[in-house]
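note to self — DONT lose this again. spent like an hour looking for the file last time. sequence + predicted structure for the chain T wanted, 398 res
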Amino acid sequence: MDASTSPTPIPQRARRGLPILLALLVLLAAAALYLRHRWAGAPPAAATPPVPVTTVAVARKTVPIALRGVGSVLPIHSVAVHTRVDGQLESVGFTEGQDVKAGQVLARIDPRTYQAQLAQAMAQKAKDTALLANARADLARYDMLIKEDATTRQTLDTQKSLVNQLQAALQTDEAQINYAQVQLDYTTITAPISGRAGARLVDPGNIVHAADASGLVVINQIDPVAVQFTLPESSFQAVNRALRASREPLQVMALTHDTQEVLGTGRLVLLNNQIDTSTGTIALKAHFPNAGRRLWPGQSVDTRITLGERSEVLVVPSAVVQRSQDGYFAYVVGADGTVQPRQVDVVDTSEGQAVIGKGLDEGERVVLEGQYRLRPGAHVAEHPPKAAAPAAAAGARP
C-alpha cells in the first residue's frame, strides 16, 4: 500500500483523552435527567395572595346642593366711641376685652366747666324772667292809662315791644339751658351698642377732644356676628334661583380651613347688587348666632351655602373616587373577587360624599381603602374598616 494513501494514525495522547471525554458526557446526561425528574415532581408555585381592601356599596339617597366659598368674620355693628366734648378724662368704667351693655357708663369727663355753663344759663333765665314780669306789669298800667288819655300810644307800643323782646330772651335762655345740659350730659360717655369692648385707647388723666381721631375704645357686636364671603361669578344664577324659589333664607355654614369643623350655622342676608369685575366674584353676607364666641371678627373661614337638594342620586364616599390622567375613576369589585377600574362622572362633592352622575350602579361594591396596591384584575379580600378594628380588638380581650 502506498504511504500517501494510508490512514493517518491517531496520536497516542489523543487516544488516552477519549475515555475522559466519554465520562464527562455521561455525567452531563445523568445530571440533565436528574434535574428533569426533580422539576417534574416539584409542587407548583404559590398563587399571588389577594389584596386586603375595604369596600362599600354604591347607595342612592337625597343630598344637599351646596356651594363653597372663602370668607371672613365681621362684627354686625362696630362703633368707635369718641368724646363729644373737650376735657380731662376723669375715669373709665369698662374692662378691656369684656362685654358691655348698651347704656353702660364707659367713661366720665371732668364736668365742672359744663356745670358752670349750665348754672350761668339758668341765672340768665331767672334775670330775664324778672324783667319780663316787670315789663308786663308796666304794660298793664299803660293799658289803663291809655283809656284815660294819660299816656301816648307810642309809649304803649314801646312797652309791648319790650315785653315781646323779653319773651324772646326767655326762649333763648331756655335754648341755652338745654344746650348746656346736653354738654354736661356728654361728660358721661355711655355704650351706644351692646358688644365686646376692645383695648382702652386713652388712659384717665389725659385731655381728650371731640376732634380726636382715635377715640376711647372700639365696641364690636359679635353675637350675632356676620360672615362675608365670595363665590365665583358662575355661581350667581344658581344662588339667585335658589333665593327666588325659597321662602326661607338660605342656610350658610362656617367651617375651619384645616379640619372642616363646623363653627356655626346661619342664614344668608345679602346677595350683593353687583359682581366685582376685577375678581369675577360676587359677595354675599350671612348672620350667625354666636353665643359660644366660636366666630371672631377678622377670622378667615370656609363657607358652605345650601341651595336645595338632589333627590335619589347615587352617592359614594369621596375616598372611593380616584383621579388619573383620563379623569375620575373607581375600582369596582366583580363577582369573582377581582377589581377593575371604571371611569365615573362626579357631579358634586360635599360632606365627604361624592355624587356620581354615571359610571356606577346602585348596590355595586367599590373599593374605599387600599387602592394604592391594586392593579386591573387583581384579587381582593374584604378588610374591616379602621374604625371597627379597635372595637373588635376590645371585644377579643378576656
